[in-house]
Input
Amino acid sequence: MKRICIAMGCFVFWFSLKAQEQTTLEIKKPFKAITFDLLSPAYTSYSVYFSTGPSNLTRWRLGYRHQLNERWAIGADLGYGNNIIALRMEGDYYRLYELTPELQYLLQLGSRTQVYFSAQPFYLIHTETLYYDSVYVQGIGNVRFDSMDYKRTKYGLTVNYGFIFPLSSSMGFNVYVGGGIKRRENKYRSFVNPTLDEYLYYDHHSSYYDNDSPLTDFQFSFGMKAYFFLK
Output
């Protein structure tokens, strides 16, 4: 995962150097754009959990960006995924809802490419039904089950560096990388045939999904989007 983060960072740095070589003004007026996330429909989770296999956490993410003046732009992305519209295999009754507002500060003016820093809070809800595995429940211990309804809530904030490169007067390409902080909270409900494991909690290897203890951690962000400029 560390190598992936470094590679993505180098990729964005290389594109930013290319962006600085562009001197022709392409976007003459503050832009308004519909955005489409190019990576989220094919997202793959690197966290392996539960014997039935992990969800890939894919979703379709659309957004809107509005440049207020020469320095500031605002916008938001809405994401939704389920096991019916997913491009990759997901778990049973998989649902994911996501809201990601963004405030951009534009750095490079009078050039073809718009370079920016941004603050991007996010809020995500992920639910699905899990089968024939175990989770650790606070105050109870390690519980095995035939099936269980799982809900994960994640929220936090990232600070990103990116650029918007116009491909034409009506379309552009956006790439960004950054990091921040996240908070994850798991909830388990509707256990079918739950049984309590006899071994102690400290023998249980806690992971991101199979423990309902709240977790605060680093959040890495990387994305690519298509921009469709509005007249």
Summary: The chain is about 10% helix and 55% strand. Residues 33-230 form a domain with the Porin fold (CATH 2.40.160). The two ends are 41 Å apart (CA to CA). The first strand starts at residue 32 and ends at 37.
